[in-house]
Amino acid sequence: MKTLVSISTFTLIATNALFSQSKPNVLYIMTDQQTYNMMSCTGNKWVKTPNMDKISNMGYRFDKTYCVNPVSMPSRFSLLTGRYSSEFGLKANLESYSNPKMNEMVRQSSVGQLFRKEGYETLYSGKMHLYGAKGNLDNYGFKLNNVDPYDGPAIYAEQILPELAQNKKPFFLFLSFLNPHDICYKAGILAQFPNGISEANARETIRLRQLQKNLSKAEYQSQIPPAPTNTAAISGEVSAMVSHSDYGRKFTEEDWDLYRWMYYRLTESVDAQIGRVLAALEASGLSDNTIIVFTSDHGEMNQSHELINKNCMFEECQRVPFIFAGKGIKSNFVDKSTLVCNGLDFLPTICDLAGIDIPKNISGVSLKPYLTDNGKKPDRNYIITEDYNAYGITDGRYKYTIYEAAGYPEMLTDIEKNPGETINFINDNAYKTIKESLKKELMSNLNTRGLLPLKELSVKLKAEMRKRKANQAKKKI
Fold first, then answer.
1. Which residues, at least 6 apart from 245, have a Cβ–Cβ distance to it below 8 Å?
2. Mind giving me the DSSP string for 168-185?
3. Could you tell me the CA-to-CA distances from 416 to 291, 314, 435 in Å, in that order?
4. Which of 29, 126, 319, 449 is most open to solvent, judged by the fewest CB atoms within 10 Å of its CB?
5. What is the pLDDT of residues 68-94, one digit of tens each?
6. What is the spatial distance between Cα 348 and Cα 193, in angstroms, rounded to a whole number?
């Protein structure tokens, strides 16, 4: 007797895999240097990100998300461990750094290790840029695959998801995309570009520059996003606030137009790669039992205060996208008020969603009660962040920052009254009580973590960062 309905072997195996495992899979998608409002779903009409928008429509988007530290290595370290890198004596991109205490913690309680111990297949593809990762991620509990940070994660997802659909083990797939980080090449405005940069690293900027040159003048002008409204330097600015981002103050108006255009196009480029991942997930039949997380390690100044890149304690650098989607998670929901930190809160949240014990003595909280609308929501009044030369605290409206520089300069901004952070209210008597309250909370936290007394940026770190800056044109950023 002939079968009237044909079911493909692939579909049958994928369906059986879903029914045989109750633990949710995790698909973690991360971009690099993408500020919080660089998605069309945020109302930004100058960028088209249909795939990021799709994740947002499927899930729960936290609008007020801060990264721990607005630069790659410390932020990525926190995302994988739930801990501040300052706990181990560092807050900057220092590739040579090694710390036995840090290495042991990573081996015991990083997110990859936690999920691996629970029977998950833990896989990683793309950019690493992590402390102690010397060509592999064994310490962090992940098997490293395709390390090309451009197309690599998309290619790997297309390859591995069909295989995972036939595997009864749950998986944690970490995909780390590089763009729009290539904006660090300053849109090719540098006179020496692409000299000193490998063709593999420069290719996307070169491709987009050629695309721009092939546009008619009218087409190009119509695609240039407007300048931000806060291009003025902050009143009361001190050099410590902007010491690694003021190159843009040498730009002409035409340079800035190209820079903004490039940042938006680089974001659209990585969105297309994310689209390939989502298509592969859907085709695998694994969507129903997979939690998707989308975020970025830090933002980008993109001409605010006439600054570029990162390493600034301003909203554009500190705030990032943060979205969860999956079974049991509220869909098409934008949370505009809850104060969260992706680096501190991701690990406890994903552990909670997967039914894995949350490590003790971490600073973050589980966001599961928000995502599922079930359970007691955490009691949080503020978030503490840091930079290579600063510590900061925000309650969602006011931000207080103190710099480890000569004289320990301070900054206080009021996001509600002055969202562009163009005014430093630190010496305004009307803000005296706010300043004292936030400073007291911050200093208490730093004291508990053994970070007091504050120290001026060490001579060793200054020398390391000067050396790194001098070599940026000769090696991958």
1. 301, 307, 308, 309, 310, 311, 312
2. SS-EEEEEE--TTGGGGG
3. 33, 14, 15
4. 449
5. 999 999 999 999 999 999 999 889 887
6. 42
